[in-house]
Amino acid sequence: MIKTLTAPKRLGGRLRPPSDRSITVRAALLGAVAEGETCVLQALDSDDARAAIDCARGLGAAISYDGTLRVHGRGLRGLRAPDEPLHCGSSGTTMRLLAGLASGLGIACVIDGSPQLRKRPMRRISEPLSAMGAAITDTDGCAPLRLAPARLRGIDYTLPVASAQVKSAVLLAGLNAAGTTVTREPAPTRDHTERMLRAMGADARTTGPVTILTPPDRLTGITLTAPADFSSAAFFLAAACLHPDADLDLHDVGVNPTRTGFLDALRAMGASVDASAEREEGGEPLAALRARSAALHGIEVAGDLTARMIDELPIFAVVATQASGTTVVHDAQELRVKESNRLEGLVAQLRRLGARIEATADGFIIEGPTPLAGADVDGLDDHRMAMSLAVAALVAHGETRLHGAECVRKTYPGFFDDLARLSEV
Ligand code: S3P
Known about the structure:
about 425 residues; binds shikimate-3-phosphate; UDP-n-acetylglucosamine1-carboxyvinyl-transferase, Chain; four-stranded mixed β-sheet; five-stranded mixed β-sheet; single chain; alpha/beta
């Protein structure tokens, strides 16, 4: 699908972005091994959410899903071997967390995904899971993953990459392992798994980069309202900062500090984003965010901050094209192994619009501000690339044709409708 986009006269209004993908996926998988019902009000409805739900169903959890997600859990040892391969679609989160969870279930199964997901690295989970005793084989480091029944033992694992998916895979395997499981991360990554485990009654203690999980006797189902996904909100925060006449109110947005590096980066660039109505829901912080037009300047992003905005780096690159001076991003090698190679993709697609961007070994350098001009660009079958390019089109002169726009379904099926509703043309 090609979307034709032009700069609106004004951007304004109120929006609740779609619910959090990371939390919805975790609720489906953890709910399946909890006792009783796990109920997620306003659960995300998107390709990734459906993939996680289908996999949990494949393992025997009874799930209904009509805006509210209800998972009838089978307990920590109650799930059964699926009749068919568990298909994760293009959801890397589902695949990596599921592999960890399924490793401890004492069942055989095959975990597979789309051609895109089959290209993404899985050795990062098969290695620690094997070290825990899992009988897991990958296919040249990728999916399909094959599991045979095995008994696991806890592990003290230092993650070689900052990855919440790897950390979560190890912790979920640790639920059914003998002895405690410890994860040590090189930089802080999203902690939704740890928060949800605690909410379900598990003893998962985090001190700085270290999490220690004692295998619980049981997990208890919880009820929560999913916050809006900060990563989806980020596109509208960026659009409001960049557009010369913009004022957007986003509400019920998840502002878990392991996710909001982009907010810190925007503010460091001079953006006007106010947070209010802060509260907590199911162990996760939420806030209303108001973003308005602002003059921005370039900054340098590295280390922990890069990790806390890893999914927002594509939209951050778009923002940097409009900031005065140089923006440099370091420590972002992981961008090469997301839904697309986002480093290469950003350089190729943003240059088509006229941006001055160069890739480095571990990130990118952007010189701004550059007037952008509409052109043909490709979403590269990567939701975050497509939405970032759509925001770039809002500040470009002339028409941008975004090819492959349908990939936004992965996390934000209503993205173009929301954009149209908030745009005054
Ligand atoms: C996610 C973790 C991150 C992130 C992804 C979602 C999660 O991946 O990029 O979009 O929900 O755990 P990595 O763990 O590979 O960094």
